[in-house]
């Protein structure tokens, strides 16, 4: 008799969670956050709108009412860009539409639902090769399939693992050729949760399954024989269960106090105003968090000037570097295959976000079209960490005491998602000098591999191919993280922007002209077409990357602009004909600039699951459209190579990478010259 699995208990847990978070709940605290009507053209679908979409779909296809047709994603189908730009508060909202990704009779559907007319105005069937984002219902149902297999159960029994301590998860399948086409397939790998909640550190190696997701049938079982399952010792990470010997020296609690309250405002749920910034923020099922219509007020003129129409994480690509059976397919597309929104668990007050944070909930559609609450998904807070905005002390003027310094206070919009073993923290940070800093941090658990070895000396001359030993019987498999950002920069308007490559070129001086031998000279090149803007970063061939409006000039004649400032980065080293890289071709370059097209938002394609790489950023850019003095979009991919180490066990400290969008000749002079300093009298006495 097979004992109930963790996955079966998970079904019960999800069902209970669903009851508490659907809008049928009687909790008044949840209704407080439910906006019954939209106030801005880009506001996400409201709960009544989600319900109305489901009703319209049921009239279009009875399968949506009976459950045979499944909703995989539902989001606002945003109005045309120029219509949004022209809209002012008080104007009538543009017609509201929803985009729905669904599965019906084994086929992918991309539907457009007009909420005003109550009709489905478009229903595209299999517009590209691939399937919609997976649902939690998919994952839970598939995780039960192994227990129906006699062969699987015998394999588990042969390994001496009690079924009560078994948990199976569903690594996505990717795409590896025609034998996996024509049906939705998924991989399954199992772990032991006996004596630990950190089951990721106890993989059951050598046993792998491939499952037909729609038939819920096993296609293939690979059993390479038992491999030692790592022990549970040292895998605990929860504070209340840790042994006191692992606690570090106590640090006193700290908090930033604001005696007059926060300086930012959130109007109508999603419109943020802070200092000289205004922007729209919304939760999104796929991207997690979207920033739109970011404008900054010019301190000289008082004019609110557009900087960015829309910015978000478009895809998150994580390929593992183990080509063996059971591992070769582990090359995840976390945004397009599962979604960053549904994996965004409630943020932890005082630890994920400080005391002064403001929280924003998300509302998404269940597979049946029922609104589901994602509470405390995004937080907003002002940050002051002792940083300096600008300063100068003068020592060369006798008799004067000049010590001018200004504290740097910023506004942060944060989301954290737990995509299986990994946690990702996304920060959009706004500075008063007009700079936007985007940071992605990674924490959580490694995806590890079991091994018979307990010490590197046991390996002798044999080195483990897939990664280093990070604990007894545990290999940390080498992998990459790549996050591609869609950045629709609109510098003082959308119609007339250009991308300028500012090259630092070394010049050699002829003998006798100077006591110097060489220097750097700046040369500017305006990218004419999309292929001109396919860029691989190089320290030894340095460029600056400017987005400018050639029709908006400063008093000195410089075009108003912003520049992309890359931070630490990594490039994909996979061959371009490797299946994961074909699908992740957006990592072939770190920078791309494309002509604006409202259908080109997801760097890996709209239908990502089991896609073949036919609808990617690489494909769009290779069309080589004109981009000079046009409405154009910047794409930037930041990345990490991750070679695991012992410090990553059992849960890894956060690692982070970032980039900046910085004004360049956008303002007439330093825009934060006039900010006031802090004085003791302004601060609370505790």
UniProtKB/TrEMBL annotation:
Quaternary assembly: Homodimer.
Ranges where the Copper amine oxidase N2-terminal domain occurs: 40-122
GO molecular function: copper ion binding; primary methylamine oxidase activity; quinone binding
Pathway assigned to this chain's UniProt record: Amine and polyamine degradation; putrescine degradation
One Gene Ontology cellular component: apoplast
Cofactor note: Contains 1 topaquinone per subunit.
Domain Copper amine oxidase N3-terminal residues, every copy: 132-225
Protein name, as recorded: Amine oxidase
BP-aspect Gene Ontology terms: amine metabolic process; response to abscisic acid; response to auxin; response to jasmonic acid; response to putrescine; response to salicylic acid; response to water deprivation; response to wounding
In-chain residues carrying the UniProt-annotated modification 2',4',5'-topaquinone: 422
Domain Copper amine oxidase catalytic: 255-673
Active-site positions on this chain: 334, 422
Protein location: Secreted, Extracellular space, Apoplast
Keyword Repeat (UniProt): no
């Amino acid at each position: 008799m097979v004992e109930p699995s963790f996955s079966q208990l998970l079904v019960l847990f999800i069902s209970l969670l669903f009851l508490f978070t659907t809008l049928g709940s009687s909790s008044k605290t949840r209704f407080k956050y439910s906006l019954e009507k939209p106030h801005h053209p880009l506001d996400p679908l409201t709960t009544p709108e989600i319900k109305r979409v489901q009703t319209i779909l049921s009239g279009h296809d009875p399968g949506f009412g009976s459950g045979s047709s499944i909703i995989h994603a539902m989001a606002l189908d945003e109005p045309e860009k120029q219509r949004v730009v022209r809209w002012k508060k008080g104007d009538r909202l543009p017609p509201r539409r929803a985009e729905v990704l669904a599965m019906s009779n084994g086929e992918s559907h991309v539907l457009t639902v007009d909420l005003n007319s109550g009709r489905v105005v478009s229903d595209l069937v299999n517009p590209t090769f691939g399937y919609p984002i997976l649902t939690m219902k998919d994952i839970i149902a598939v995780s039960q399939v192994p227990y129906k297999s006699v062969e699987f159960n015998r394999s588990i029994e042969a390994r001496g693992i009690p079924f009560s301590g078994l948990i199976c998860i569903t690594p996505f399948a990717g795409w590896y050729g025609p034998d996996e086409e024509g049906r939705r397939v998924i991989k399954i790998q199992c772990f032991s949760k006996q004596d630990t909640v950190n089951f990721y550190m106890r993989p059951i190696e050598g046993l792998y399954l491939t499952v037909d997701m729609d038939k819920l049938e096993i296609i293939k079982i690979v059993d390479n024989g038992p491999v030692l399952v790592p022990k549970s010792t040292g895998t605990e990470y929860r504070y209340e269960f840790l042994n006191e010997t692992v606690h570090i020296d106590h640090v006193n609690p700290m908090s930033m106090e604001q005696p007059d309250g926060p300086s930012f405002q959130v109007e109508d749920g999603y419109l943020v105003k802070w200092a000289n910034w205004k922007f729209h923020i919304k939760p999104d099922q796929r991207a997690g968090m979207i920033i739109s219509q970011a404008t900054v007020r010019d301190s000289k003129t008082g004019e609110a000037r557009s900087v960015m129409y829309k910015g978000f994480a478009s895809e998150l690509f994580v390929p593992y570097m183990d080509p063996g059976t059971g591992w070769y397919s582990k090359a995840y597309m976390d945004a397009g295959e599962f979604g960053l929104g549904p994996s965004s668990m409630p943020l932890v007050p005082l630890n994920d976000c400080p005391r002064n944070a403001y929280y924003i909930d998300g509302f998404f559609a269940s597979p049946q079209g029922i609104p589901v609450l994602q509470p405390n998904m995004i937080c907003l807070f002002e940050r002051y960490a002792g940083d300096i905005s600008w300063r100068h002390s003068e020592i060369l003027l006798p008799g004067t005491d000049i010590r001018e310094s200004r504290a740097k206070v910023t506004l942060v919009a944060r989301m954290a998602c737990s995509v299986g073993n990994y946690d990702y923290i996304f920060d959009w940070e706004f500075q008063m000098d007009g700079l936007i800093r985007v940071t992605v941090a990674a924490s959580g658990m490694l995806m590890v591999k079991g091994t018979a070895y307990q010490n590197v000396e046991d390996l002798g001359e044999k080195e483990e191919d897939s990664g280093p030993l990070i604990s007894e019987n545990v290999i940390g498999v080498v992998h990459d993280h790549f996050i591609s950002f869609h950045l629709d920069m609109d510098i003082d308007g959308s119609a007339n922007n250009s991308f300028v490559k500012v090259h630092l070129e070394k010049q050699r001086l002829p003998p006798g002209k100077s006591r110097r031998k060489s220097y750097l000279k700046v040369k500017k090149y305006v990218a004419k077409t999309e292929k001109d803007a396919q860029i691989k970063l190089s320290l030894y061939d340095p460029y600056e990357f400017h987005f400018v409006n050639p029709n908006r000039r400063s008093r000195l004649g410089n075009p108003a602009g912003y520049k992309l400032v890359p931070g630490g980065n990594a490039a994909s080293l996979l061959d371009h004909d490797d299946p994961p890289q074909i699908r992740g071709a957006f990592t072939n370059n770190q920078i791309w600039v494309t002509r604006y097209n409202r259908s080109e938002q997801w760097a890996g394609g709209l239908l990502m699951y089991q896609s073949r790489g036919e609808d990617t950023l690489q494909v769009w850019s290779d069309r080589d459209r004109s981009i000079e003095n046009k409405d154009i979009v910047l794409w930037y991919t930041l990345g990490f190579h991750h070679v695991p180490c012992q410090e990553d066990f059992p849960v890894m400290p956060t690692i982070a990478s970032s980039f900046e969008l910085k004004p360049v000749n956008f303002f007439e002079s330093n825009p934060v010259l006039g900010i006031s300093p802090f004085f003791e009298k302004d601060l609370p006495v505790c």
